[in-house]
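Help needed: design a sequence for this.
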């Protein structure tokens, strides 16, 4: 992440009273797109999600009974790659913050724009918007590619998923929104920890480790409130899953997490030395 660099030269300061949110967003966009890791991370996300979706659908077997047919949710299967997408995008978002601390370029950023909350808001806007666009495009491409891979043996029993079926369009759209929220959570965790190892460990712990541990210890009682469980069983489903959060409740919980992490990150960023 040493390639992180401020949009302006070291020590350059925007004239007093003239810098604003637009300046900060422009600076953060230049930094994000200039990182060598950004296109590779996004390309890996695209390829990984599409591949997982297609492979999962190609290996979906025809249900052997009416009960299994009623429980089968091909939409959830085709969106299985969101789990990989959240890992890559979340870590990229963490690195977008912690990489500046590692390289020392955060000092130039704060010299140019002393309002630290403004800097964090700009980072969140750029990462969130980029992840939202990429996430929605991948979700729809994966859906159509995976749908085409579903075997006739399955479609003879269960109709192939279509956007006009109940819950399908909502599941695809919310999957893309989820990746944007994950990026915002990553930005907040990066601001909280300021260290790449700590930030990525915290992200992995919240999204993967804790839900798995809690599922083993308490079942879904607590685990269903964690991001990965929410997307897998609430957002990216066309059919409701028993004992899980509803899609809109799950989305509301994720928005609450995002707001809380960003608020805490902004509060600490404004009070700690660079």
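Sure. Designed sequence:
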């Amino acid at each position: 992440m040493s390639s992180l660099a401020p949009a302006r030269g070291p020590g350059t300061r925007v004239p007093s009273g003239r810098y604003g949110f637009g300046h900060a967003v422009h600076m953060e966009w230049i930094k994000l797109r200039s990182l060598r890791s950004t296109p590779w991370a996004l390309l890996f996300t695209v390829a990984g999600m599409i591949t997982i979706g297609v492979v999962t659908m190609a290996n979906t077997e025809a249900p052997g009974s009416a009960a299994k047919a009623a429980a089968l949710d091909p939409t959830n299967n085709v969106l299985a790659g969101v789990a990989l997408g959240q890992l890559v995008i979340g870590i990229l978002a963490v690195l977008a913050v912690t990489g500046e601390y590692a390289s020392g370029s955060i000092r130039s950023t704060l010299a140019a724009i002393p309002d630290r909350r403004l800097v964090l808001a700009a980072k969140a806007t750029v990462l969130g918007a980029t992840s939202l666009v990429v996430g929605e495009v991948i979700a729809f491409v994966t859906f159509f590619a995976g749908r085409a891979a579903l075997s006739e043996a399955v479609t003879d029993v269960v109709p192939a998923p279509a956007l006009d079926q109940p819950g399908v369009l909502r599941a695809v759209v919310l999957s893309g929104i989820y990746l944007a929220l994950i990026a915002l959570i990553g930005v907040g965790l990066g601001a909280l920890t300021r260290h790449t190892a700590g930030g990525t460990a915290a992200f992995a712990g919240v999204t993967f480790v804790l839900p798995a541990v809690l599922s083993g210890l308490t079942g879904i009682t607590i685990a269903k409130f964690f991001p990965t469980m929410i997307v897998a069983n609430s957002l990216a489903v066309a059919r409701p899953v028993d004992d899980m959060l509803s899609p809109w409740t799950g989305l509301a919980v994720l928005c609450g997490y995002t707001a809380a992490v960003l608020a805490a990150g902004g509060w600490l960023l404004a009070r700690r030395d660079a």
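The longest helix spans residues 116-149.
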